[in-house]
Amino acid sequence: MMQTKNWHTRLGLALAALAVSAASWAEAPHRWQLNLGKGVTQTSQSAYDLHMIAFLICCAIGAIVFGMMFYAMWKFRKSKGAVAAKWSHNTAVEVVLTVVPTLILIAMAWPATKVMLNSADTANSELTIKVTGYQWKWRYEYVGTDINFMSSLKRDSDEARRIGSGVDPYSVDNYLLDVDRPLVIPADTKVRFVITAEDVIHAWWVPALGWKQDAIPGIINDSWTRVSKPGIYRGQCAELCGKDHGFMPIVVEVKPKAEFDQWLVAQQANSLPTSNIAAAGASAPAAASNLN
Ligand SMILES: [Cu+2]
CATH for 127-290, among 1.20.1530.20, 2.40.50.140, 2.60.40.420, 3.30.9.10? Predict the structure, then answer.
């Protein structure tokens, strides 16, 4: 009796663990993950769907081409007395081999263009956040508010990464993927990002959001996101930007709307003195480079 109970409990636990890991697969990459992640936004889901369509088309083409090739090699083999035909050039075949791939390409480009246009459409956003890349950290400014802060590699990761630190990187949670202050955004809200850099080219990339945007000094790029599922999503700088390129991760914390509003009020209440300091730092160009 005890044995069956154990068996049931174990099965239940195993299924629960499977469900949890299946749910988390949606966002964070995991060991031996073979396919693209689905992410947590409409853009990332569309990118995943496009990827699957293209992948299935490639598989079908591969199966047809290799199938015909192997069939011909087997059917018309020399040991069966096959003799090669002498003709070359066949207009009908050439027309088909040009027209069919062209149609396939158009069929693939059509939905891809639609997704691309949609992912570039930042109209009707409810919140704008300015992201600035620095060697080697990010600044987040909530446009229209006093909230403005730096987000750098978390201290435990920073210590563990140093040669001879004696800290085992495996003992650090989210090693090199954690920051001191995450970017906080509301769920179910169209958030627009305007992205630039202060020194060299960086790129702001959180895979679960489904896009990557270059952060270029003197240029402002923009993109948007709408995350329906609250949670913590991690990313990294995706443009080689100097010796500490690997040490400027990105963490986005998506809070339910009401919770985000509370957070915003709390930040604004205690950001007045610090934002003055931050503003003074930002207005002096030398200050930014001194931070390095
Ligand atoms: Cu960078």
Answer: 2.60.40.420
Q: How far apart are CA 214 and CA 40, in angstroms?
A: 21
For residue 76, the CA-to-ligand 1 centroid distance in Å is 58
pLDDT digits (tens, 9 = 90+) for 152-203: 999 999 999 988 888 899 999 999 999 999 999 999 999 999 999 999 999 9
Q: How far is the CA of 198 from the centre of ligand 1 (A)?
A: 11
Q: Ligand 1 mean position to 209 CA, how many Å? A: 18
What is the 135 CA–ligand 1 centroid distance (Å)?
6
pTM for the full predicted model: 0.76
Angle at 212 between CA 206 and CA 213, to 5 degrees: 125
- Per-domain residue ranges of the chain: 42-81+90-120, 127-290
Ligand 1 center from residue 239 Cα (angstroms): 6
- Containing 215, the helix (H) or strand (E) segment is strand 211-215
Distance CA(92)–CA(34), nearest Å, equals 40
